[in-house]
Every structure is written in structure tokens, then in C-alpha cells.
Write a structure and sequence with these properties.
It contains 13 helices and 20 strands. By secondary structure, it is an alpha/beta fold. The chain has 2 domains: about 260 residues, Aldehyde Dehydrogenase, Chain A, domain 1; about 190 residues, Aldehyde Dehydrogenase, Chain A, domain 2, CATH 3.40.309.10.
């Protein structure tokens, strides 16, 4: 498909980045990129051929040989320069992000700015990726080293088009690895703008490669290649299980940050108004398209009506629209599939007796919009109580006993994020001990931070991103025993 006749002047269609060069797909194949706020095309994305992927694999192998032997001081210099370029170009990157993904421009700018900070954190953390020397028998040296694992195949979704890729890029490159990044075909120019910052900072050819294409075909080829040494994925549970199985077949480690269905428990002693305001802000951030988004609200019956009233008020105060409009506080969903899923989940809940308190409709306008939606008295067997909505829909149900709330919260196979509101230190400690999640926030709905680890348990994956733990997947722990001469 061709680029539209009159794309926005600030939008540049993405290209593949392989061995330090920007290029089209070998067969010139492309797909159209659309603006979810209008449904109109804004550009194209190249679709890599098997030959392109082979080139990327060979480039990553050579790039790894170069990068791992580059002195740490030089690697640090290049990566700091990349962080500075991300900061300098943050507004341009944010505008591209809004055109492709739809989120309000302020949200996009915040994401781009945090991305540079994440890179700076991992640069400095790599300086502290220490091994150790172990006392042992006389005449023998025993030590533990941490070496970069090798070329990484990374797969990322569209919901955080620059922050998501950079969590993997920054960790891998700081650790001394090379990478092939397979970014989303729905947000390609944002990923390309990020990779361009690294390239312009002086990254050696092949250290960071960018491809797009048919997801199943690209993942199969990259994972099967003996040149790939680690698979890093963020996305849905079903796709994560498929990629982990493929990696397991060829005995490759994998890092999996998968979906969730985060419970929020509002206890009897919580301030319902404060809890509702904080929970609603998090629920409708990025139009609910966040894997850690609060998505099941379990509220003590004594706080139920006050919490619900304030939550509905917060939802109705949002202004849905084009992310480039300064008045917009919630943008569109990323594509028509998400709108259809939101409609299905809402209709199913209502058919099972739920009350629609606000929203529940697709606005009469172009683009992939769905109104901020609040459902109350949702039946336990409603699909939305077991299926991650990835949309601006909040099901709210009452509970009488904390044991029951914890049982509902832990009843699903997911365990990414969870949230609790209470004024009791003892209750907070119980929530910390008993909620089955890799990320837990008490009295707020905090997002991921680069200085602390994020990741899931159960079907929500394994491995961690952020904090000192972020480098673990990209480093091999090697024991070295050296019998000294003589």
C-alpha cells in the first residue's frame, strides 16, 4: 500500500534499521499506518522478508562482538549521548506517538521524557553489575563473573511505543548485548525515532536493529536462529506462552512480561472519595490500555456507594478526543479490535445483570473511541471479571469480608499488578502478604518506575524489568576456577 498523498508534515514513515543503515524491505512490501483518532492513514511501515531478518541476525551477531569488547567507559558515553538525544527530541517523538497510538500529547511527552531517565538509570546500574571473588583453597582463584548473554530478540506492543521498547533496549545495551527489536506495526515511526537516537549517538552498526513484519513469521525465524541467545517479550498471555514454548524448544532463556487483570481492594477503613479519584485516574490513563491498569474494583459494602459516585464523577469529567487537542484528557483506543472487545464485554456484563452507570457507548465520531465506562453489581461470571479489558471499562462490585475479596482477587491465573486502599498498617501488611502479584501499590495506583523491578507471577510471566534486577536476564553468571601456575 502506498503512503497517503498528504500525510502530516511532521510524520515520517518508518524504515528498517539493519547493520547501521535505514532501508526498505527487500521486496518493498509495506502496510498502512493509521491515526486511531481519525481512522485516516498517516504513513506506511515496511514488512521485513526472511532475507531481511537473516541480515538483521548476522548484523546483531557482529554487533555483539563489537559491543561486548567496547570499553565500559565508551559504551557509557554513547548511551548517555543517546539519552540526551531522546530528551532533546522528546516533543517530536511525543507528537509522532500521539499520531500513531492516540494518547494525549501530554501523556506521550511524559512517556518520552521518562524513557531518557530509564536509559540513564540502566547505564549507571551497569557500572555496578559486579561479580565476586570467593575464598577457596590455596593456589586456586575462584570467582564469579557476569557476562552479556548475546544477541537478543525483543518483541514489544503498541501501548507504550517508546517506553516499552526502551525498557528492553536500555537494559540489553547497558549489559553489553546487541538486539533485534521487533516493534509494533501500529506504532512504527515512534520506535524508529527512538532507534534513531541511539544510531545518531554513535552506536556501532548492528548493535541495535529494528524490524517490522508479520508477527508470527518474524518471531518464528528470530527465535529459531542459533544466533539469538535471549527472547524478551511484552504482550498478551497467549502470545507469550507461544513464544516461550518456541524458545523452550531450542533451550533459550526468555523474559516474559505478560498481561494481567489487576484487582483493587478498597477496605472498610479507606477514604472512598480519595480512593476513587486515584483509582479512576489510573484506570483511564492511556484509555485503559495498560497491562497493569486497575481493572477489577472490589469495594467494601460500607464504602461502595460513595466510591462509585466519585468514580462515575471522575469518568464523566474526562474529555475524550484527538490526543493532539489540548482539551483532550483521554484519547482513542488503538484500533477497531479494541473497540469491538469493549462493546462485547460491556454488553455481556449488562446481559448478566450489571448496571451501566456511565459510558458504554462508541461516540458518534470518526476514530476508535469508546466512552469511559463504569459498571456496578457485575456478576462473578461476567466475562469482564475474568478477561483483561484493555479498555476504559471499570467493573465495581461490593464485598463484606476481606477474606472474600482476597479470594476473588487471587482467583484468576494472572498476577501482574494489584492495588489496595486502607488506613490500617495491619491490613496493608495482610494485603502485601496475600495478594498474588508481582507489583503491589497501597493507597495509590503507582505505575512502573525505572529504579524498582516490575514483573508478574503465575500466567503474567517471569523475569523483571526495572531496578538492579533488570540486568539479570541479559547477563550470564559464570563461575571461574583458576589453578594458579606452579
Amino acid at each position: 500500500m502506498s503512503t497517503p498523498d498528504h500525510p502530516p508534515a511532521e510524520y515520517r514513515s518508518a524504515r528498517l534499521h539493519i547493520a547501521g543503515e535505514w532501508r526498505d524491505a527487500a521486496d518493498k512490501a509495506t502496510a498502512t499506518v493509521t491515526n486511531p483518532a481519525t481512522g485516516e492513514p498517516v504513513g506506511t511501515v515496511p514488512l521485513a522478508t526472511p532475507a531481511d531478518l537473516d541480515d538483521a541476525l548476522n548484523a546483531a551477531a557482529q554487533g555483539f562482538r563489537t559491543w561486548r569488547t567496547t570499553p565500559l567507559a565508551r559504551r557509557t558515553e554513547i548511551l548517555h549521548r543517546a539519552a540526551d538525544l531522546i530528551t532533546a527530541r522528546a516533543r517530536a517523538i511525543a507528537r509522532t506517538m500521539t499520531l500513531e497510538q492516540g494518547k494525549p500529547l501530554d501523556e506521550a511527552l511524559g512517556e518520552a521524557t521518562r524513557t531518557a531517565d530509564t536509559l540513564r538509570w540502566h547505564i549507571e546500574d551497569a557500572r555496578r553489575a559486579y561479580g565476586r571473588t570467593i575464598p577457596t583453597a590455596p593456589g586456586t582463584s575462584l570467582s564469579v563473573r557476569r557476562d552479556p548473554i548475546g544477541p537478543v530478540a525483543a518483541f514489544v506492543p503498541w501501548n507504550f511505543p517508546v517506553g516499552g521498547p526502551n525498557r528492553k533496549i536500555s537494559s540489553a545495551l547497558a549489559a553489553g548485548c546487541s538486539m533485534i527489536l521487533k516493534a509494533s506495526e501500529e506504532t512504527p515511526a515512534t520506535a524508529a525515532a527512538l532507534v534513531e537516537c541511539y544510531a545518531d549517538a554513535g552506536l556501532p552498526p548492528g548493535v541495535l536493529n529494528l524490524v517490522f513484519g508479520e508477527p508470527a513469521d518474524v518471531s518464528a525465524q528470530l527465535i529459531a536462529s542459533p544466533l539469538t541467545r535471549l527472547v524478551a517479550f511484552t504482550g498478551s498471555v497467549p502470545v507469550g506462552k507461544l513464544l516461550a514454548a518456541r524458545a523452550g524448544e531450542v533451550m533459550k532463556p526468555s523474559l516474559m512480561e505478560l498481561g494481567g487483570h489487576a484487582p483493587v481492594i478498597v477496605c472498610a477503613d479507606a477514604d472512598p472519595v480519595r480512593a476513587a479519584r486515584r483509582a479512576a485516574r489510573a484506570k483511564f490513563f492511556n484509555a485503559g490500555q495498560v497491562c497493569t491498569s486497575p481493572s477489577r474494583f472490589l469495594v467494601h459494602e460500607s464504602r461502595y456507594e460513595a466510591f462509585t459516585a466519585e468514580f462515575v464523577k471522575a469518568a464523566e469529567a474526562l474529555t475524550t478526543g484527538d490526543g493532539l487537542d489540548p482539551a483532550t484528557t483521554m484519547g482513542p483506543l488503538a484500533n477497531a479490535r479494541r473497540v469491538a472487545a469493549a462493546e462485547r464485554l460491556t454488553a455481556d456484563a449488562i446481559s448478566r445483570g450489571a448496571t451501566l452507570r456511565t459510558g458504554g457507548t462508541r461516540p458518534d465520531r470518526p476514530g476508535h473511541f469508546f466512552a469511559p465506562t463504569v459498571l456496578t453489581d457485575v456478576a462473578p461470571d461476567a466475562q469482564i471479571m475474568s478477561e483483561e479489558p484493555f479498555a476504559p471499562i471499570a467493573p465495581i462490585v461490593p464485598f463484606g469480608d476481606l477474606d472474600d475479596a482476597l479470594a476473588v482477587a487471587n482467583s484468576l491465573p494472572f498476577g501482574l499488578a494489584a492495588y489496595g486502599f486502607t488506613e490500617s498498617a495491619a491490613t496493608a501488611e495482610r494485603l502485601c502478604a496475600e495478594l498474588e502479584a508481582g507489583i503491589l501499590s497501597i493507597n495509590h495506583c503507582g505505575g512502573s518506575v525505572h529504579e524498582a523491578p516490575s514483573g508478574g507471577v503465575k500466567d503474567s510471566g517471569y523475569g523483571r524489568e526495572g531496578g538492579p534486577e533488570a540486568l539479570d536476564a541479559y547477563l550470564v553468571t559464570k563461575r571461574v576456577s583458576h589453578l594458579l601456575a606452579g
